[in-house]
């Protein structure tokens, strides 16, 4: 379980997050929704100890801030936004870097680990870019490369910052279906996303950030997560959304 307690972040005298608290049980997908600048990336970077914060963030009742970096690497894998990434390496070398937490300082990846890379590239339909540098492939392909690297790390918690941004429709669902499979194996997934309908379809829980504050924490078990999400979207962003019931569960549509 991840327990975020009263977390606030101030950067350059500006309050980015204000008193954020929530829990994530093991084996769940938490979707983090919110407009640009709402604090989504700041929240996940705080969870990864990449930004200073006040409050407490715990994993299995242990303060993450007290853990050594190697210990945190065994717990968390991270898929950052593409704009943060280095590009001067081959695709398969980037993916195999997910094994680094298993290696000593002088050890190099084994043939068996590269076989795992090949299997992941096959699963995510990336074999056609094998041998290419990261700056030679498309944004969607690059996104899936970093997703594959995080999968190879096999950490307990996968944290991903807008992993669907550059993916086409098919790849978005293929990726999110794979995250559902990982949850059934006991992994915990935290990802920021802009599409509320993908969040409603695949998320077990949704938190909605607005101007650095936690405005809603919705859970699938309530059976009215869609209606509650609609209510909050209309409350926060104006009465622009309605619900369509063309499928088994409703989804949000822009009504103007």
TrEMBL record:
UniProt cross-references to SUPFAM superfamilies, sorted A to Z: P-loop containing nucleoside triphosphate hydrolases (SSF52540)
Family: Belongs to the ABC transporter superfamily.
Transmembrane helix listed as a keyword: no
Residues annotated as domain ABC transporter: 2-236
Keywords: ATP-binding, Nucleotide-binding, Transport
Domain of life, per lineage: Bacteria
Protein name: ABC transporter ATP-binding protein
GO molecular function, one term: ATP binding
Keyword Chloroplast appears in the UniProt entry: no
Organism of derivation: Amedibacillus hominis
Gene3D superfamilies reported in the protein's UniProt record: P-loop containing nucleotide triphosphate hydrolases
InterPro entries documented for this protein: AAA+_ATPase, ABC_transporter-like_ATP-bd, Metal_Ion_Import_ABC, P-loop_NTPase
């Amino acid at each position: 379980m991840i327990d975020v307690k009263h977390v606030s972040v101030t950067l350059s005298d500006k309050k980015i997050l204000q008193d954020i608290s929530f829990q994530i049980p093991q084996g769940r997908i938490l979707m983090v929704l919110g407009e640009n600048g709402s604090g989504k990336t700041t929240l996940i970077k705080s969870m990864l100890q990449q930004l200073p914060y006040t409050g407490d963030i715990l994993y299995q009742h242990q303060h993450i801030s007290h853990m050594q970096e190697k210990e945190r690497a065994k717990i968390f894998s991270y898929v950052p936004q593409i704009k943060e990434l280095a590009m001067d390496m081959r695709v398969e070398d980037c993916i195999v870097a997910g094994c680094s937490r298993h290696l000593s300082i002088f050890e190099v990846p084994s043939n068996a680990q590269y076989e795992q890379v090949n299997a992941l590239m096959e699963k995510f339909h990336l074999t056609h870019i094998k041998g290419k540098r990261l700056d030679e492939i498309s944004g969607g392909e690059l996104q899936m490369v970093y997703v594959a690297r995080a999968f190879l790390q096999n950490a307990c918690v996968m944290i991903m910052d807008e992993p669907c941004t550059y993916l086409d429709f098919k790849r978005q669902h293929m990726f999110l279906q794979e995250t559902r499979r990982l949850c059934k194996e006991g992994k915990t997934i935290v990802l920021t996303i802009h599409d509320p309908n993908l969040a409603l379809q695949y998320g077990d829980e949704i938190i909605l950030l607005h101007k650095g504050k936690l405005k809603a924490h919705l859970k699938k078990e309530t059976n009215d997560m869609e209606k509650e999400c609609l209510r909050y979207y209309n409350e926060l962003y104006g009465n622009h959304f309605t619900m369509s019931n063309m499928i088994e569960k409703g989804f949000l549509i822009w009504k103007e």
